[in-house]
Records
---
Amino acid sequence: MNLSLFRTITIFDVGQQLIGLRNLKLCCHYKLHPTSKCHQSRLFINTSTSLLNHSINATESMEPKGTTIVVEGNIGSGKTTVIELLRQKGKAAFIAEPVKKWTNLNGENLLQKLYEDPKRWSFMFQQYVYLTMAQNHEKARKKEGITIMERSIHSARNVFIENLKNRQLITKPEYEVLDSWYNHLASTPGYTPKSYIYVKSDPELCLQRIKSRNRPEEASIDIDYLKGLHTLHQSWLVPKCKHCSHHKKMHASTIVVNNSGDKDALVAELEKASAKIFGQE
Ligand code: TTP
Ligand code: MG
């Protein structure tokens, strides 16, 4: 009996970067006589099958199991509130923003350091944001169904790091290192969401919310800083040029949710967006 095994699989390199589709053609011609026990042939088939299974498993674990949606918007725009409201619908899994990690890394309050001396600490802080966000993308990729997470490596790069460069709070080499990290992380399968929920809010309102929630680290945030972040969110998530849109958002769509500060209006906005959000599994 001739047994032919001919499979095509996807391979990723050790650095977990997709290097393209390569064909692995495994062809085993294997003669089996009911009476003879050909140990070597069996061993070959067993090893090849394990390798194949291993590669397929490796491939499967890289591929996202479900759909990731990311909530973005200015500091104090109401992302956490939006997530709480969506949570009540019971139709998705949720991953919280790692702010707690940023305020306590083995006793170090990195967020506080950032605001106390941005020139000294921004580079360090943004690297830790990348790490903690990559951990969240990793969690999201393994979940089935819809997973909604607050923030992403994409806002870290397209909004915060861009803003730090504009304000000359990071040096050119620091910017280049952060950009290289982004290019590496963003090419990981599953790290680009299907869509963004963009919580759009007036920077003045964001400032009011920041003041009333009173995170001690954020006491120095001013309106110019929030206006800069607002402009960057806009040009990233709702760019006027189609080419820029594809380039910057890597084909993810944007669902805009306006937050004017009125809770009932926000609930109504989410109701309107609900079909778009939950209909994309
Ligand atoms: P946000 O990620 O905007 O979270 P939030 O809880 O303030 O937003 P919302 O009220 O809409 O729920 O900001 C958290 C803090 O982290 C804020 O002080 C800004 C800072 N930050 C950076 O400095 N760099 C970054 O890349 C990110 C993602 C946040
Ligand atoms: Mg929040």
---
Amino acid sequence: TAADGFVHDLPGARVVFAAGARHRLPEETARLGLRRVLFVGGDGPLRRTAGELVAALGGTVAARIDEVVQHVPAAEAAAAVRTARRCGADGLVALGGGSATGLAKAVALEMGLPVLAVPTTYAGSEMTDIWGRTDDHAKTTGRDPRVRPRTVIYDVELTLGMPAALTAASGLNALAHCAEAAYDPAAGPVVRLLAVEGARALAAGLPDAVARGRDLAARAETLYGAWLAGTALGAARMGVHHSLCHLLGGAFALPHAETHAVVLPHAIAFNRQAARAALAPLDRALGAGPGGSAAALWDLGRRVGVPRSLAELGLSREDALRTAEALGARAVTNPRPVGPGDARELVLAAYHGLRPA
Ligand code: NAD
């Protein structure tokens, strides 16, 4: 409550959110004063868009990296830094999901260059100061203001071709940012409002965005929710859900968004007692029944067809137990303390993937 007091500190990016906003990229790079851009991303289905944007930027593009690997392997990050140095880059444009943004951030972390992000999934990395890197199967993350993109261009048209499976999993990834920001005791009232409104928009938009990928209204609502989710992620401390997903992503290279989709209902159920008051607005925003947000998000996951369990993602029970040990040994800020027994309970729940009671 307001009587408890709070700290409000919400650094943000300039956000341009509109259908067709990608056409404003040259104007926005000029606004940042960029003359030698390293263009990152735009592989596979985004190749044509990347070609269009690079052509529109013309001589401003000093170099391109189009192959992007998930979870920012240290070797790729080092190679990108070398490319940026070699071409004398004065800034980066990242086109793609969290992996493209993540690679641009790795260069920004090393060289302090400004990033302009054009996100194409709901990952939310474009709104945060969080960087990640994977060395030898361990993922390290940290926070640094230098990696937070200065400008973000959200163009809903770039999301219309996102396959249904990625749409569903990525939307639940964004919902995870909302949930963990909502129950972070240190998050102030504005961040909680962003988190709850983000969750509402994501839950409202996602089913139609999955069922009819080219539904512009549903896509826009979902992308709007993803923006708020990313903003909340950038302004709050993440709890046990994100810790567990990072461990799984780093150690077993499980697919990022799907892992979040699987773990989320169980992480919320795990925190339900300890964070009852904080979760109440989220329950309302999701129109949750007696099972609260945990069951509501499990049901949403089933409706949009995301994987149900860590077992289904190919994790062995042995590796699940090993992960629980690692999680129990970590210092995690979370409403409910995470000792070894608690960690095992959570990981096994996600491993089996049954609907939280
Ligand atoms: P991704 O960026 O790895 O993209 C997944 C796949 O989808 C890629 O093959 C990509 O080419 C394709 N794709 C992306 N957009 C598309 C579109 N519109 N249409 C068709 N295909 C498209 O996946 P992601 O889930 O966005 O990002 C995951 C990575 O981001 C992880 O490494 C994760 O750790 C990181 N992340 C970081 C933060 C942060 O704040 N630092 C936040 C969220 C995620």
